[in-house]
Request: fold
Amino acid sequence: MHANVLKPVLIIGGSGVVGAQGAHALRRLHPDLPIAIAGRDLARAEAVAAQVGNAQGVRVDLQRADLGLGEDTRFSAVVLFVKDDTLNSLKYAQRHGLPYISTSSGSFEIAPEVARHLRHPAAAPILLASHWLAGAATLPVLHFAQDFRRLDTIRIAALLDEQDMGGPAAAADYERLTSAAAAQILEHGRWRWVRDAAAASRFLSVDGTQVEAAAYSPMDVVTLAAATDAHSIRLDLALGETASRRRGEAFSTEIVIELEGERRDGAWVRSRHELVHPQGQAPITALGIALGIERLLGLAGGAAVAPGLYTPDGLIDPAYHLQRLAEFGVRIERKPDLVLAEPIAA
Reply:
């Protein structure tokens, strides 16, 4: 399917900090794809649309079943960069048979979306992309995991600079996801919900500084548990000062991935990969959502996606994702593997 035959992609929250970058990332990937920038403030949406090009600004009202757009307006997909507590955006997408991407739900919040799909399984393809930076940790983990014959432990640590919170929507997501519920982890094969001292952890930033962190529950842990046979999986998040800012530079964003298990040559090892973007979290999130849009619409990686319920790893090839991350400015570094003296306990 060619971009120039599609109706506009409706990006709700597209005039916000991350949503606007998402629109620009999509434009970079697909110069001819029509885009509709949707928000509550029409003037702001139109200003972003003018910057993106081949785009229009529209006003949306998530309290209305038709989103304030009318039932005759036509789009090719619906993308959320804000939390829609009404699910009117999902209902709208299902009524019109449009691909839908959700980006702001913790693992403990997806039941309403899942229930909508179960009730209407043939209505639309739904991509649950509420992973850390829209899959920026999960998809690389699955790529790096190919070096292992058996993967036992997955540890993801994310350092978000305190100056890199983004706009009000991102700040609201962070507050909700870190305070509303305990964090979900997989520990020695058992699911646990942890908070306070049980959730606390530490990890090394990319410059070797020890950082205090806590378990966090976007969709990464449950997705990786379904995709691998690892017995222990957790994602820890720290809000603080990134290594670049400690050097006196602008903030960046850091993702550290540590995998333990039996390498394909039979050695028991711990691997460490570091992913850093010098402009913070927004460009990575924007790219992740843009890759989801292009895959759902059949603009890359295969034909347009059939109705169903998906996570990014079920649609996007990890190697392709990693390639795009590098093209969009992510520095990816693998540290030497640490060979372990004893096999890891099952």
